Amino acid sequence: MRTPVTIIGAGLGGLTLARVLHVHGIPVSVYEAESSPSARMQGGMLDIHDYNGQLALEAAGLMDEFRAIILEGRQAMRVLDRDGTVLFEEGDDGTGGRPEVQRSELRQILLDSLPAGIVRWGHKASGTRALGEGRYEVSFADGTTVVTSLLVGADGAWSRVRPLLSSATPEYVGTSFVETYLFDADTRHPACAKAVGGGSMMAPSPGKEIFGHRESGDTLHTYVALSRPQEWFAGIDFTDAAAAAARIAQEFDGWAPELTALITDGDTAPVLRPHCTLPAEHRWERVPGVTLLGDAAHLAAPNGEGANLAMLDGAELGKALATHPDDIEAALSEYELAMFVRSAEVAMFEGAEVHHIDSENNTAQGLIAAFTQHKQTS
């Protein structure tokens, strides 16, 4: 019998691994802290790339289901100046390799592809310890435990599995998102809806940016990026939604009202999302019977690659375990060596992306020049 796999975390990476293992007949259990699939909002849209995320879905045998949830037209993109002028616009002709889907719908596809009982809800990992001879115990907040000889940490930035392999901890990179939503935007917030357009909108400035994204229907999801220390954000009372939104909007004084209204008119309370990273080339020595994937392994600030990399990690680990059923260590070594390389490559690119917000060139004109150069060289 093949060694059962214990996965901590039912995010996109952990579920992709579970699905690929299930396809190959390898027994698997997933332990998730959330009480149910609908316990919290699953974030906004994701662009799933043809060079990593879609490869993972192919390995999982779920491409037809994926195509069914693609939001047509959402690859359209525009750049606005701070006065609301559209300086650059690119439509979505359907030929791009990064179609947009709702994260919640993608997660549901993965959940629906697994037999009932594989995902154990309401199991928040509180700690892990090595028992010797390649066996590990995971403790949960409800007082229960599970013992396994093949443990995978897919439990995100503050992974409880990571300490078995590495002493690294995430560090704040100096920027944060503040997120808001506008619902029924075409009728209730028409100026904002017009500014964002049919896909994504970016309005950059040194040290700050406003991103808007049209999600399912006429929902607008706004990400306000600010380069500020954590102490600055700590001075804002995010439990007072109106006051917090007003304080964030102050940083954009003089900007077009259709842009600042994306912050002040939000239909949800603003949510602070600090950007933290692990070291750019985070890796560890091989430890028998345990590994990591996704943010637990290579957390980076948002750059469009996190979910895609986590899914590819899951798929590649699943395939390696299927290829080496009698040699778990060979499978884990093969997976980790490849994962270290691809995550380091993305981290190098991410380093430049994180620091661009502070640059004096972080303007609409600078962003347009970067897009133009990228097209000429790709």
Question: What features would you describe in this structure?
Answer:
The protein has 378 residues and is an alpha/beta fold. The protein has two domains: 213 residues, 3-Layer(bba) Sandwich (FAD/NAD(P)-binding domain); 107 residues, D-Amino Acid Oxidase, Chain A, domain 2. It is 35% helix and 24% strand. The chain contains 13 helices and 17 strands. The strands form four sheets. Strands 5-4-13-14-15-12-16 form a seven-stranded mixed sheet, with helices on both faces. Helix 1 runs parallel beside helix 4, helix 2 runs parallel beside helix 11 and helix 11 runs antiparallel to helix 12. 42% of the residues are buried. About 2% of the residues have low confidence.
Give descriptors for this structure.
alpha/beta, FAD/NAD(P)-binding domain, D-Amino Acid Oxidase, Chain A, domain 2, 7-stranded mixed beta sheet, 13 helices, 17 strands, globular
**Total tally of structural domains:** 2
Supply the CATH architecture of the largest domain. Answer: 3-Layer(bba) Sandwich
Helix content: 25-40%
State the end-to-end CA separation.
Answer: 47 Å
State Rg: 21 Å
CATH superfamily caption of the largest domain:
FAD/NAD(P)-binding domain
Helix-strand pattern: EHEEHHEEEHEEEEEEHHEEEHHHEEHHHH
Mean of pLDDT: 91
Mass-distribution shape: globular
* Largest sheet data: 7 strands, mixed
Tell me the β content: 15-25%
The helix-and-strand class reads alpha/beta
What is the CATH level 1 assignment of the largest domain?
Answer: Alpha Beta
Largest beta sheet: what is the strand line-up?
5-4-13-14-15-12-16
Number of helices, counting only DSSP H or I runs of 4 residues or more? 13
Uncertain runs are: 350-355
Number of β-strand runs: 17
- CATH fold description of the largest domain: FAD/NAD(P)-binding domain
